[in-house]
Specification:
The complex is a heterodimer.
Chain A lengths: L3 H12 L5 E8 L9 H15 L3 H12 L3 E8 L2 H4 L7 H18 L4 E7 L6 H16 L3 E9 L3 E3 H17 L11 E5 L20 E7 L2 H9 L6 H30 L3 E5 L12 H8 L9 H19 L17 H8 L5 H7 L6 E8 L4 H18 L3 E8 L7 E3 L6 E3 L9 H5 L3 E2 L9
Parallel strand pairs in A: 1-2, 2-3, 3-4, 4-6, 7-8, 9-10
Antiparallel strand pairs in A: 1-7, 4-5, 5-13, 6-10, 11-12
Chain B lengths: L2 E9 L4 H11 L3 E10 L2 E9 L7 H15 L2 E6 L1 H7 L2
Antiparallel strand pairs in B: 1-3, 1-4, 2-3
Helix pairs in contact in B: 1-2
Classes of the chains: A alpha/beta, B alpha+beta.
C-alpha cells in the first residue's frame, strides 16, 4: 500500500520542484497525403492532422487531471515536408503554403507547436529539399506555430557542407524577416547532425520516415526535482551523488512512462518512446545550470563544468533507461541558454562563453541551443559554427544541433526577450576571425573512419 | 475509476474527515485506508479509496472535492493511484 510519505514526496515534486511532463508529442505520417496538385496536398494534410490529433489536447488535459501532474505542452510532429511536398511544390513559395496549412491545423487542434517543416540532407539536397530550405525564412515569418529543422550531416554520411553554407544564409535571412518580433523565427529553426526520427521536443521534432502512421512520444522534465534531491546530499562523495541522480531520474521517467501509456491507450495510438531529457524552463528552480552549481560549480562555465555535465547526463540516462520500456529521442540534459535562468546568469557573470558551451555539447544533448548572437554576425561565421557543432556530432556518433538567434540591430551587452518557454537571452560575443574561405568550399566532408578512436 | 488517492493538507479544523467521508459514502466510494497526522496545527491526511463502484466520474469527483476543500479552506488533491505506484514501486 502506498504510504503518506510517498504521496507527499510525489506531490512535493510537482508542487515545489516543478515536476512536469514537458510534452506529449503526436507524430503523424503525412506520406499518404502526397499529391501532384498543391491544393489537394494542402487539403489532405489539413484533414489528416486535424482528424488524427482531434482528441490530443483534451486527452492530455484529462490525464493531467487524473494524475495531478501538469503536462505542459501538447504538440505534433509530421513527416519532413520536403518529402511530402516534393511532387507538388515547384518553388519555395509553394512550400510556404504547406507551412500555413500546418499552422492552421495546429490552431484547429489546439497544440502550441507543430514540427516537421524539415529536410534531411545529410548527404545531398534534392530540388525539393533546397526549395524547402529557401522557403524557411518566409514560412517562419508567416506562421506562428510551425517549427523547422534541417539535418545537415550524420556519422554514416559525413557533413553536407553545401547545406551547411546555405543554412548560414537562411538563419540570417530568417532573423531579418522576423526582426520586428525579436528575430523569433530563428528560435523555431534547428540545424542538426544525426537528427533522431522520434524526438518529441521542439523545435527539432519531426516524424521520421522509419516511423509508423502515428505514434505518441513523451518528453519528461524535472531539473528542479534533481536539484532538490542533490541539496539533500551536499558534500557527499560521487557515489552518493550519482545514486541520487539515478534514483531521481528513475522516478521522473516513471511518471513520463505512465503518461505515455495512458495517452497511447486513450488515443488508440501506439506508444513510441520516452525522451529522457532534463529540460529546463526560464522559471527559477527549473534549471540545469542550478543542478551543476549544486554539484559544486560556482557558476556554469567554470573549470569542471564539462565533467559535471557528463556525469549528470550519464546518470540521468542510467536511471531513466530502467524506468521506461522504450527510450529514444534526444535523451540527455538540455543546455539552452535563454530557457535556463542559471545559464543566463552565468553568461551575464562572464563565466560562460560560446566556446565553453561548445565543449559542453560534446558530452550532453543537444547542442548550441537558444543562443543570441550579434545581428551583424556573417552568414559564413554561422555556417562555421554549424559545421563545428555538426562535426562534434558526426565524430562522436551523437545528435548535435544549432539554434542560434542573430539579433538584428543589437550587439553584445544587449539582450533579447522571446517570452514564455523560450525565455530571454543576453547577446553573446562570437569569435571575429573569418572562416569564409573554409565554408565557401563546395561539396561534402566525408564520413569519418570508425576505428582508431583517439 | 479504480483506486484513488485523496490527500488533504491545511490548517486543522472541525469536520474535515466527516465532510469528505459523507460525500464518498453518498456516491458509493469505499475507503480502504486512512491515515492522518497533525503537525503544528497543520492537518495532513491520506485516504485510499476504491472508486470502482462510485456513481460519479473521476472529473466530477475532483470537482466536488475541490469544492469541499474550498469550503473548509483546505487543499484536497485527488489522484489516481498509478502515479504513486509507478514512481515508488518497481
Amino acid at each position: 500500500m502506498i504510504t503518506r510519505f510517498e504521496v507527499n514526496e510525489t506531490n512535493k515534486m510537482i508542487e515545489h520542484d516543478n515536476l512536469d511532463v514537458r510534452t506529449i508529442t503526436l507524430g503523424i505520417s503525412l506520406l499518404d497525403c502526397c499529391d501532384n496538385d498543391l491544393d489537394v496536398l494542402n487539403e489532405k494534410i489539413y484533414k489528416k492532422i486535424t482528424e488524427t490529433a482531434k482528441d490530443l489536447v483534451s486527452t492530455g488535459k484529462d490525464i493531467e487531471r487524473d494524475f495531478g501532474i501538469p503536462i505542459v505542452n501538447k504538440r505534433i510532429s509530421v513527416t519532413p515536408i520536403a518529402l511530402v511536398g516534393a511532387s507538388a511544390c515547384k518553388t519555395p513559395e509553394d512550400f510556404v503554403t504547406i507551412a500555413k496549412t500546418l499552422d492552421r491545423a495546429a490552431k484547429t487542434v489546439g497544440v502550441n507547436f507543430i514540427g516537421g517543416y524539415s529536410a534531411l540532407v545529410s548527404k545531398g539536397m534534392t530540388t525539393a529539399d533546397e526549395n524547402l530550405m529557401r522557403s524557411i525564412p518566409q514560412a517562419l515569418k508567416e506562421t506562428e506555430f510551425v517549427c523547422s529543422s534541417i539535418n545537415v550531416g550524420s556519422t554514416k554520411t559525413g557533413l553536407n557542407m553545401d547545406a551547411v553554407r546555405l543554412m548560414g544564409e537562411i538563419v540570417i535571412e530568417t532573423a531579418e524577416l522576423t526582426k520586428e518580433n525579436d528575430c523569433i523565427g530563428c528560435a523555431k529553426l534547428v540545424i542538426f547532425c544525426n537528427a533522431p526520427d522520434d524526438n518529441p521536443f521542439m523545435a527539432g521534432a519531426f516524424h521520421g520516415v522509419t516511423e509508423a502512421d502515428a505514434i505518441i512520444n513523451v518528453g519528461v522534465s524535472g531539473p528542479g526535482v534533481v536539484k532538490s534531491a542533490l541539496e539533500r546530499v551536499r558534500g557527499e562523495n560521487f557515489e552518493v551523488l550519482c545514486e541520487t541522480i539515478k534514483k531521481t531520474a528513475f522516478k521522473i521517467t516513471r511518471v513520463g512512462q505512465l503518461v505515455a501509456q495512458e495517452a497511447s491507450s486513450r488515443l488508440g495510438i501506439p506508444f513510441g518512446i520516452i525522451d529522457l531529457s532534463l529540460a529546463p524552463t526560464p522559471a527559477v528552480g527549473d534549471s540545469v545550470a542550478e543542478i551543476l552549481e549544486e554539484i559544486g560549480l560556482e557558476r556554469v562555465g567554470a573549470p569542471g563544468t564539462t565533467a559535471a555535465l557528463a556525469m549528470l547526463n550519464d546518470q540521468v540516462k542510467k536511471g531513466g533507461v530502467m524506468a521506461s520500456s522504450y527510450v529514444g529521442g534526444l535523451s540527455g540534459a538540455f543546455i539552452p541558454v535563454s530557457e535556463d535562468q542559471g545559464m543566463i546568469d552565468s553568461v551575464l557573470a562572464g563565466a560562460l562563453t560560446l566556446e565553453k558551451l561548445e565543449a559542453m555539447t560534446c558530452v550532453c544533448s543537444v547542442g548550441l541551443d537558444m543562443i543570441a548572437i550579434p545581428g551583424d554576425t556573417t552568414a559564413s561565421t554561422i555556417s562555421g559554427i554549424i559545421a563545428d557543432e555538426a562535426a562534434i556530432g558526426m565524430i562522436n556518433q551523437k545528435t548535435t544541433a544549432v539554434r542560434l538567434i542573430p539579433v538584428i540591430g543589437k550587439g553584445v551587452g544587449e539582450s533579447v526577450e522571446f517570452g514564455g518557454l523560450l525565455g530571454h537571452a543576453p547577446i553573446m560575443p562570437v569569435n571575429q576571425f573569418s572562416c569564409e574561405k573554409f565554408v565557401s568550399r563546395t561539396g561534402r566532408i566525408p564520413a569519418p573512419i570508425h576505428s582508431f578512436k583517439n | 475509476m479504480d483506486k484513488v488517492i485523496i490527500s488533504v493538507v491545511g490548517k486543522d479544523t472541525v469536520g474535515i474527515i466527516a465532510a469528505i467521508c459523507t460525500y464518498l459514502a453518498k456516491h458509493n466510494g469505499n475507503i480502504l485506508d486512512i491515515s492522518q497526522t497533525i503537525v503544528k496545527e497543520y492537518f495532513n491526511m491520506l485516504m485510499i479509496i476504491d472508486g470502482s463502484k462510485m456513481d460519479v466520474t473521476f472529473g466530477e469527483l475532483v470537482e466536488s472535492l475541490d469544492k469541499i476543500g474550498e469550503e473548509l479552506g483546505m487543499s484536497i488533491k485527488c489522484q489516481r493511484e498509478e502515479i504513486f505506484t509507478k514512481m515508488h514501486r518497481i
